[in-house]
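Re: that backbone. Tokens:
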């Protein structure tokens, strides 16, 4: 039996969740029914649009554009600041509800997840019937809507959920690719960023179908490994495995939204260094080492990607975590400006657990020698006693205004 994968995506999550909360507290107007956005500071009109209502979309307002631009397009626009604590709670309750259907859930962001429907498909006449029950149940229980995409792999399910919105169910099975996906503009292909689209259009590739039928050698010549991935996506080739994990096995991680988008690897490295220090410290505090490291990117247009690797030897050493995250970043970065970076570790084991060595037990980057281990231990003890940042590497210290470089 072919896998049946759902991609479940909250429609304009931040705005929908804000609207639901306001209505619960007696608001007379539903933000989803007027031109409204979730964005930056109301007085200064700084920041970017994080979410928009359908009415705001009709004014040409786009997610990710500056708030000031949005007000020029619609002076009477209603705007509210984000409430990330409330969003996390809405997300938690949604995932809790979805797990009453199956535990095979892979949450990929605060407002979207994949569900492996294969094992429970026989409860309904069709996958669409099951999706209807889930979609309508969410609306009745929580007051917001979702789109559900259905296919045999995660990529096609994701593409399907991005079809017409809101509150819709779409299928995109392999046999439907030519009819439903190939006519779409190339910019609508998952992971096709602005710079990649510009390159492809210069090659007279304007639709997803054009890319699917293009010479792979030509695409990789211009876009290297990212081009190969896009060509595979255009042909419906993607992973089908939903990576669900029990809550206790999710591991330890951290992410940060950057004050300004990072456009170079030189800007990214210090961010991963700080994240690795935080994650490594938390692993040590918990007495754990990680066997798996994942790296997450959120781009300026809020599209996301992640990449992970199984380590040869479990670690909680920040330098190893940083170098691994940087390596993963370089493998999947499409060159677009980056807004958020994250490091997550999983497959945790006790720090005291014996390690399985082999004749190939050479790791790059190498674990610190005894001298550096003792130094790190001393630094950890000082930070544990006097607070994080009491002592740190010089390269991690914030620069003063007169500092150079």
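Recovered sequence:
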């Amino acid at each position: 039996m072919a896998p049946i994968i759902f991609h479940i995506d909250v429609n304009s999550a931040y705005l929908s969740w804000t609207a639901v909360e306001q209505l619960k507290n007696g608001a007379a107007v539903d933000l989803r029914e007027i031109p409204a956005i979730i964005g930056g500071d109301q007085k200064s009109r700084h920041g970017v649009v994080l979410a928009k209502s359908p009415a705001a979309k009709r004014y040409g307002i786009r997610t990710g554009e500056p708030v000031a631009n949005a007000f020029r397009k619609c002076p009477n626009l209603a705007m509210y600041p984000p409430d990330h604590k409330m969003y996390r709670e809405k997300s938690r309750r949604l995932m809790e509800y979805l797990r009453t259907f199956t535990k095979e859930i892979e949450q990929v962001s605060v407002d979207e997840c994949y569900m492996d429907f294969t094992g429970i498909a026989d409860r309904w006449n069709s996958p669409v019937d099951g999706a209807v029950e889930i979609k309508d149940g969410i609306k009745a229980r929580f007051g917001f809507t979702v789109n559900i995409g259905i296919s045999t792999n995660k990529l096609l399910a994701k593409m399907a959920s991005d079809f017409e919105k809101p509150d819709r169910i779409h299928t995109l099975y392999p046999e439907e690719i030519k009819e439903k996906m190939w006519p779409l503009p190339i910019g609508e292909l998952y992971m096709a960023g602005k710079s990649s689209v510009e390159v492809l259009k210069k090659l007279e590739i304007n639709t997803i179908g054009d890319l699917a039928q293009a010479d792979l050698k030509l695409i990789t010549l211009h876009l290297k490994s990212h081009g190969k991935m896009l060509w595979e996506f255009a042909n419906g080739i993607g992973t089908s495995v939903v990576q669900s994990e029990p809550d206790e096995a999710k591991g330890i991680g951290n992410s940060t939204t950057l004050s300004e988008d990072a456009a170079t690897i030189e800007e990214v490295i210090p961010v991963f260094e700080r994240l690795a220090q935080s994650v490594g410290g938390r692993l040590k505090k918990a007495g754990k080492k990680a066997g798996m490291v994942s790296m997450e990117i959120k781009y300026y247009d809020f599209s996301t990607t992640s990449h992970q690797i199984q380590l040869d030897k479990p670690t909680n050493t920040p330098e190893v975590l940083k170098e691994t995250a940087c390596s993963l970043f370089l493998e999947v970065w499409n060159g677009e400006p980056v807004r958020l970076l994250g490091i997550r570790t999983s497959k945790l084991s006790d720090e005291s657990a014996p390690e399985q060595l082999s004749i190939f037990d050479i790791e790059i980057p190498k674990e610190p020698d005894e001298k550096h281990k003792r130094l790190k231990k001393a630094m950890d003890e000082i930070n544990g006693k006097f607070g994080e940042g009491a002592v740190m590497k010089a390269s991690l210290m914030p620069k003063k205004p007169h500092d150079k470089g």
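Residues 357-365, 394-405 have pLDDT under 50 and may be disordered. The two ends are 58 Å apart (CA to CA).
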